[in-house]
TrEMBL record:
Protein name: Dehydrogenase xptC
Signal peptide range: 1-20
Cofactors demanded by this protein: FAD
InterPro entries: FAD/NAD-bd_sf (IPR036188), GMC_OxRdtase (IPR012132), GMC_OxRdtase_N (IPR000172), GMC_OxRtase_C (IPR007867)
Pfam family, one: GMC_oxred_C
Native source organism of the sequence: Lachnellula arida
Phylogenetic placement of the source organism: Eukaryota, Fungi, Dikarya, Ascomycota, Pezizomycotina
Domain Glucose-methanol-choline oxidoreductase N-terminal intervals: 117-140
Record carries keyword DNA-binding: no
Length: 597
């Protein structure tokens, strides 16, 4: 789950700031809703990766006050949040939304679970700490879909700003920390079936950076980074365990204005309200941001009318273009694996020694998540014998093959624009569509450029009922073709000199099971949901413009992964941080300890 080139100092997106004096604040983390102010300059819905990043940047100006409303809890310092080897351990707990998708016909009617962070820090607390970045082609695709200012060169300064930043008025500090973990055997001695060994690009075989604080060997997250930097500011409030249930709209002008929000601690609790003087910023994630818009009367009129919801703004793209990275496991056993993280669960003595090493001096096996050894490969590398056929099939398929028959016309047009760029992307040698993650001694094989598109739709006006998440994985036949090729390439890797020494035996799916059958039976999500409020021209199913402002609304922005029109071929954490940095970069050049870039 979620991980230099030329610089640009041009400010492309800015948020206005108020210079008026504000009431005295009582402290950051507010435990009682009655203790908050009646109004704030900015209300941020969601205290996760993007929400806390924006809150930190906005409150750098002491004249601006900010409220973050987070539906989840503040963590209690559980070890599965901090220890790298336990990364992902919070999945399925009270800190997880535990969203389950609708039955998927292409997956033999299985319903796939989608973990999402329901905690201060969001999914940056639940993920496996991978902190990589997509290729130039990934972000240039955003630009080429009608979003000037959002190509790789435009985003690069904000990827950098995540890591090296003037974090507070008190002096220089690191907002986020990353490092390269110690990892098991991987592509250390060969070019692995003709693929390049990456030397700084975002494709090939490489050791991936992780969101790890190397000074402590603990997770670095939006909770330990942006929140910790901002938490003592007197102009910052965070109210946890409060779910925003509706946006309060003023439809009297030429554009809708958001006056504030309604929120509740539970379905039976009384509704409370708070006013936004300037803007409301949605950072609730791809599932809940789309649902909140629909609950507020902003979305596809055809969907909302069926629920007897008053349509305040017909915006068909809301909830559409949903997609996620998807993976299968090529499971192996190995006769020759002398030091394995698997020993942590099978060898009590080894596990005790490892725990002592970690607690005494932050060393040993517990300092790794085991997901640092990765490969991001172009179609031509992993599908040498079938890439031409796959590309031909994509070009020949109907434009709406990836979409539901209920998709609005503008969404269909937007996907047609995406498909035309996909053909060029998949044919390129420097753009990845398949990821391989070494999992000691197995291999996770992930399609990171899927064509299939689904939707997120509320089924009731009760905000405490989860929306219908229709992933529609494998609805486009090309996705299955790419995964089949990916499995065959993965099997071939175990015959290379670098991995042959393991004396590995395939346990799943086994040669007697077809790759296609195995994919349909086991395909799962990597927990990178995106696209439900896409940054696209409105006539292509877009929901936000290049300033991330919602079309037709004067003071509403979205800053989470829902704005990504196409998922980059990477774990999404660092990209979400960069998007949040970009939208909140308002007046200062990128200043580091060595000067101004």
């Amino acid at each position: 789950m979620g991980f230099l080139g030329q610089f640009s100092t041009v400010m492309l997106v800015s948020l206005p700031f108020v210079l008026a004096a504000h009431p005295r604040f009582l402290g950051t983390h507010i435990h009682n809703a009655r203790a908050i102010n009646s109004s704030y300059d900015y209300i941020i819905v969601g205290g996760g990766t993007s929400g806390l990043t924006v809150a930190n940047r906005l409150t750098e100006d002491p004249k601006v006050n900010v409220l973050v409303l987070e539906a989840g809890l503040m963590d209690q310092g559980e070890t599965y949040f901090s220890e790298p080897s336990l990364a992902g351990g919070a999945v399925g707990t009270k800190y997880d939304w535990n969203v389950t998708g609708v039955a998927n016909p292409q997956l033999n009617n299985r319903s796939v679970t989608l973990p999402l962070g329901k905690v201060v820090g969001g999914s940056s607390m639940l993920n496996r700490m991978v902190f990589d970045r997509g290729s130039k082609a990934d972000y240039d695709m955003w630009r080429d879909l009608g979003n000037p200012g959002w190509g790789f060169d435009d985003l690069l300064p904000y990827f950098i700003k995540d890591l090296f930043t003037q974090a507070s008025h008190d002096g220089f500090g690191l907002l986020l920390r990353t490092s390269v973990m110690r990892s098991p055997v991987w592509a250390s001695r060969s070019r692995m079936m003709g693929a390049n060994i990456s030397s700084g690009s975002a494709y090939g075989f490489f050791w991936g950076p992780t969101s790890l604080d190397p000074s402590k060997e603990t997770r670095s997250s939006a909770r330990s980074g942006p929140y910790e930097v901002a938490k003592n500011r007197t102009n910052f409030h965070l109210l946890s365990s409060q779910q925003v249930t509706k946006l309060i709209l003023d439809s009297s002008g030429p554009e809708i204005k958001i006056e504030g929000v309604e929120f509740k601690s539970s379905s039976s609790a009384p509704v409370q309200t708070v006013t936004a003087n300037k803007e409301v910023i949605l950072a609730a994630g791809s599932i809940h941001t789309a649902a909140l818009l629909q609950l507020s009367g902003i979305g596809d009129a055809a969907v909302l009318s069926k629920l007897d919801q008053t349509v305040a703004l017909d915006l068909p793209g809301v909830g559409n273009n949903f997609h996620d990275h998807q993976y299968v496991v090529l499971a192996y056993t190995a006769a020759n694996l002398s030091l394995s993280t698997a020993n942590l669960t099978t060898n009590a003595t080894f596990a005790a020694e490892a725990q002592a090493e970690y607690e005494n001096d932050a060393t040993g096996p517990l300092t790794t998540t085991g997901t640092s050894a990765m490969a991001f490969l172009p179609l031509s590398s992993y599908a040498k014998n079938s890439s031409s056929a796959i590309l031909s099939a994509i070009s020949a398929a109907p434009a709406n093959v990836s979409l539901s028959t209920a998709a609005p016309p503008s969404v269909v047009q937007g996907h047609m624009a995406q498909r035309s760029l996909y053909s060029k992307f998949l044919a390129a040698q420097d753009a990845a569509s398949m990821e391989y993650i070494w999992s000691d001694p197995s291999l996770l094989i992930a399609l990171v450029k899927p064509l299939s598109r689904g939707s997120v739709t509320i089924t009731t006006l009760d905000p405490f009922v989860q929306p219908a998440v229709d992933w529609r994985a494998l609805s486009d036949p090309a996705d299955l073709q790419m995964l089949n090729a990916g499995i065959e390439f993965g099997r071939a890797l175990y015959g290379t000199s670098a991995l042959k020494v393991l004396e590995a035996t395939e346990a799943m799916p086994g040669l007697a099971t077809s790759a296609e059958s195995y994919v349909r039976d086991t395909l799962a999500t990597i927990y990178h949901p995106a696209g439900t409020c896409s940054m696209l021209p409105k006539d292509l199913g877009g929901v936000v413009d290049v300033d991330l402002k919602v079309y037709g609304v004067s003071n509403l922005r979205i800053v989470d992964a829902s704005i990504m029109p196409v998922l980059p071929a990477t774990h999404t954490s660092s990209t979400v941080y960069a998007v949040a940095e970009k939208v909140s970069f308002y007046s200062k050049p990128l200043t580091f300890f060595f000067g101004v870039l």
